[in-house]
Amino acid sequence: MSDRETAIIGLKREIKMVRATARDLKDQNERWRKVCSMLRGVAGLDDAQFRNLLRAESLPVE
Q: Domain ranges in the chain?
């Protein structure tokens, strides 16, 4: 196997690992959003209060 083929195989493996990590992070983000929504309901925060809380912690408001 040439150095070029070895490099290509290594890059393909790296791409697969990065994609898997991205999928895992996306799933984790969705789970955190559910937890956040539940806690928001428990705390009784309205939309404005919740946005203020996110801004205070320098978190993105979507």
A: 3-57
